Amino acid sequence: MGCNGWSPASLVGAETLVRGVPLLVYSTHIPERPANAKSAEGSAAAFIAESVISKITAKNFIIMGDLNNLPGDAALNLIEGKGMRSAWSDLRLNDRILSTHLHIETGRESGLIDHLYFNKRSQAKTVKGGVIYNAFNPPFVDKEMSRSKTHWLQYGKPLSDHRPVWAVLRFGR
Asked: Most buried of the four, 34, 37, 70, 124, by CB within 10 Å?
């Protein structure tokens, strides 16, 4: 992906049918907008908005994953400006309280930086959703651990360095 920030940023897509509704789903892991930048120009989110969303012809599509930006950030505003709607908006989640990532080195919460967006043309509505705070591997599962082993042993071995998010969407037909 052509953008500023760490590399490789990724965007992986698949087409599927869910209860007879065709769906194009993209999962992503991208860096936040460039540090100290007032705009999202050159960011991975800008690349997605201009080079991906703008070219999708499918009626029903989702972009979800680790977008590393908070609601209201310039990068996410670009995505929303291309006709995408956040599942968090429908649910009216308090993005000042929720967090999908605990920074292991600093112990600070990063906030709601994992997202699920759907295109408005789909007329989808988010019915339910949220952040899963207790997604840990069973303690008896022996997994290779990094520099954070002490922290993970105290709180449980995470399935990922981010908390999973989920949403139930109802698509218009």
From this structure: 124
The radius of gyration computed from the CA coordinates of the chain, to the nearest angstrom, equals 17
- Which regions of the chain are under pLDDT 50? none
Token representation of residue 81:
């400006």
Instruction: Say what the pLDDT of residue 155 is.
Output: 60
CB 82 within 8 A of CB 48: no
Domain at 10-131+163-170: CATH code: 3.60.10.10
Residues with Cβ within 8 Å of residue 13, at least 6 apart in sequence: 24, 25, 26, 27
Buried b (16+ CB within 10 A) or exposed e, 16-26: eeeeebebbbb
Residue 173 exposed, middle or buried by CB count within 10 Å (0-12, 13-18, 19+): exposed
Predicted local confidence at residue 128, as pLDDT? 93
DSSP code, position 156:
-
> What's the Cα-to-Cα distance from 33 to each of 4, 9, 36, 156, 168, rounded to whole Å?
8, 12, 9, 31, 28
| Residue 171 in tokens | 């698509």
pLDDT at 121: 92
User: What Å distances lie between residue 72 and 14, 40, 81, 95, 112, CA to CA?
Assistant: 28, 12, 12, 10, 11
pTM metric for this prediction: 0.82
Using DSSP, state whether 51 is helix, strand or coil.
helix
Q: How many CB atoms lie within 10 A of CB 132?
A: 11
